[in-house]
Automatic annotation (TrEMBL):
InterPro entries linked: HINT, Histidine_triad_HIT, HIT-like, HIT-like_sf
Domain HIT: 9-117
Name assigned to this protein: HIT domain-containing protein
Organism placement in taxonomy: Bacteria, Pseudomonadati, Pseudomonadota, Alphaproteobacteria, PS1 clade
Motif (Histidine triad motif): 101-105
Length: 139
C-alpha cells in the first residue's frame, strides 16, 4: 500500500526488530500479547502483509486472518476461563486506530466488569509471558 509505513511497530515486530510476547504464528498470520491490555489475556492478531487496515486486505488474507482470530479466541477463552470474548477491529484514526498495520483485538470479558482503557497501561512482559504460555497450551 502506498501509505503503509514500514516502520510501524507491528511491522517491526513481524521483522523481529522489536520485541513481543508471541502467542502463535503460521505462514500468513501472527498473534502476540497486547503490551497495554484492556483485560488480562488481551491478544492481537495480524496478517503478514502490508495492510494499514481491513480495507487493504484481499479476500484470501481476510479469510486467513479471521481463521486465526477464531483459533486464538478459542484458546484465550479456554486458557483464561473468561465467560465472554470481545473481538474488536479499528480502521482509521477516526475510528480510534493507533497502529496502522491492520489487526484484530481478542479481549476477555466478564459480567459487570468494564473494559480497560484502550492503549494506556503498560504491563511487564514477564507477566504477559505467563499468560501467553497458558494460551499457547490451548491452541
Ligand atoms: P489500535 O488502537 O490500533 O486498534 O490498537 C493498537 C494496539 O496495539 C493497542 O491495544 C496497544 O496497546 C497495542 N500496542 C501498541 N504498541 C505496542 C507494542 O509495542 N507492542 C505490543 N505488543 N502492543 C502494542
Amino acid at each position: 500500500m502506498s501509505d503503509y509505513d514500514r516502520d510501524n511497530i507491528f511491522a517491526k515486530i513481524l521483522r523481529g526488530e522489536a520485541p513481543c510476547v508471541k502467542v502463535y504464528e503460521d505462514d500468513d498470520t501472527f498473534a502476540f500479547m497486547d503490551i497495554m491490555p484492556q483485560a488480562e489475556g488481551h491478544v492481537l492478531v495480524i496478517p503478514k502483509t502490508e495492510a494499514c487496515d481491513m480495507m487493504d486486505l484481499n479476500e484470501e488474507m481476510t479469510q486467513k486472518l479471521i481463521v486465526t482470530v477464531q483459533k486464538i479466541a478459542r484458546a484465550v477463552k479456554s486458557a483464561i476461563g473468561c465467560p465472554g470474548v470481545m473481538l474488536t477491529q479499528l480502521n482509521g484514526a477516526a475510528a480510534g486506530q493507533t497502529v496502522f498495520h491492520t489487526h484484530v483485538h481478542i479481549i476477555p470479558r466478564y459480567d459487570g466488569v468494564d473494559l480497560g482503557i484502550h492503549a494506556t497501561d503498560m504491563v511487564d512482559p514477564s507477566e504477559l509471558e505467563k499468560l501467553a504460555q497458558k494460551i499457547r497450551m490451548k491452541i
